[in-house]
Amino acid sequence: MTNISIDALAPERQEPSPGEPENWWRFFTFSTDHKVIGIQYIVTAFVFFLIGGFLAMVMRGELITPEADLVDRTVYNALFTMHGTLMLFMWTFPVLNGLSNYLVPLQIGARDMAFPRLNAVAFWLVPIFGVILMASFLVPGGPSQSGWWAYPPVSLQNPTGNLINGQALWLVAVALSGVSSIMGAVNIVTTIVRMRAPGMTFFKMPVFCWTVMAAQIIQLFGLPALTAGAVMLLFDLMVGTSFFDPAKGGDPVLYQHFFWFYSHPAVYVIMLPIFGVFSELFPVYARKPLFGYKVVAVSSFIITGLSGIVWVHHMFASGTPGWMRMLFMFTTMTISVPTGIKVFAWVATIWGGKLKLNTAMLFALGGMTMFVFAGITGIMLASTPVDIHVNNTYFVVGHFHYVLYGSMTMGMFAALYHWFPKMTGRMYYEGLGKLHFVLAFVGTNLNFLPMHPAGLMGMPRRVASYDPEFAFWNVLASLGGFLLGVSTLPFLLNMISSWVQGEKAPANPWRAIGLEWMVASPPPHENFDEIPTVIAEPYGYGKNEPLTAQQAALQQLASTEVA
Amino acid sequence: MSSINLDSTVNTAAEVSPAHHEEGEHRLVGFIIFLLSESVIFLSFFVGYAVYKTTSLDWLPPGVEGLEVREPLINTIVLVSSSFVIYIAERYLKKENIWGFRAFWLLTMAMGSFFLYGQAVEWAGLNFGFTDGLYGGMFYLLTGFHGLHVLTGVLLQAIMLARSFIPGNYDDGEVGVIATSLFWHFVDVIWIVLFILIYVWQ
Asked: Could you give the ipTM of this predicted complex?
């Protein structure tokens, strides 16, 4: 009965809406509509994902043989630096900002974000710093070669002597990305705190909004530390101060503290919203309420709290004193408890459910599985003795690629497929979607799993050539890498062709509960004709429980008519 | 709907539409969140200063004994007092005494400008520069970054003062004034920590 009222409440729209292709020009303008900005973010991020992915293909091409024969070592250094930078600063953060921008106001029953103009400014900084970053390919000396972490003193080297060099452009771009992210975080947190629909208490709010808020709080309190470090490094590089330059008495390890104080929590900025995506998708496709909704919601904030006291585990090999290693080993391992609670809740949600294995659900299941694997290797890395052994080897590379591709990017694909009908008003092609999933799942595991044995055997990371004993694992990884590259093609084809000529989507194709599914696909300009009054928790699948007061009234009306 | 208790917005609430009033509160909440975030940048610099001071082998540049405290102390007294002056200005605005508001607001601006002038004089008289070791770097980084905030505060105050001459502008709640005032208190608190760190803990 509940679902009848959900469908009846979502009118089909007549006039063009933000997601429709005949309105495509809106995506190139300074729009203040959160839905347009959300799609702008997602598409921009995806363009940079393709560029970052192309750089990865070149690297895997280089590593398919033990010799440095495809590119020289300098180019290789620039490749892994830019690949990491693009994937983190230009793919993960912007694409999640896009998803949050699109969904949060819809899910909390708001007409827009709290600060629509600030929202647009924050978005337009992204292509600007993307261009600054890409411009470093054109300056003498090429892009930064010091890795995405830009450790001094390596990052303080400026062989060309030019004021404008790859590293300086990198630092400016990162500082700008910080400004953009802070603007976004202020906006999202204010929106969630202030603009929820009447009746939507925090414990009636979808888990996606909880996780986004938790993630944005990390941005607010972690990112300024990175910005401070980046500003000081920029002064060292361009003005000649001595903050991090050991030759002048500076302390390069302090930079590592600033950097990791943000950049470890940043992994939760990336993963928390994906946890939110999993928590949204499993109940829909298993037709069951989210197991332990309140615990899952609150555990996001426990992760946020703990994330501030784990950064030193990146520095176990930086001369960190023994007591500090012990302390941070303990805190890092503790964070597996709230994350484990979430995994347990997802498994309990799908347990005994009637699963609908469409593309979105397959990606969610695949992403969750690989997150479990990444979590296990994460616990291994948190253990100081293991970390000292595998530090700077491919084991670490394998671990964080399972996090960032296996879990985050797969989770993001799950989200994009799930909400594609809502965003565009069209259905995607299941066949192409499933082909994408199979290629991506096999490609991810073939690419990143062999990195673990190679790392345990001692293969160092950040090298263009290696000992032939690692060749077998690298050939496998490269084949997996190419497969992963190929897997993007059916996705692109699917998204473009479906958006242009896919079957028209109903308002609620998955028969999901959630405010975003109660408006037309794509939603009208200000989302809701009338702001709904929320009366129930968001995951009442099978409970026959209306989510909003309007639905309850409609349901009552329907039952009266039947009688 | 939950609401924050900022009593300075309460007295204007009756005059404005609820939607408009709410938007003002959104702005204040957003601004407070921004200030909390901003304080972490200062905190990072403070941590940097403390770490370098306690671990560096050559902390003070050659020929530098330490800093003269007298003028900076006068500067500090002026800046900290201005927090009370801006509070009085805000009170006048609440009582709808616009000229009282303008007078004390202008006095705050004058005190902020005096602070900036004092800092410029101090910088001009120092015998070390930004690139003179860790000490020079941290000193100019901290005082410069804070000075930039003072300058921003004074500019914001100028804008708010100018806006007060547009008829009917502050009828719809004085969110900009409250935000500027909050920013000013923030700048003052940061300075107190900074003063203790740089001038007292020599």
From this structure: 0.90
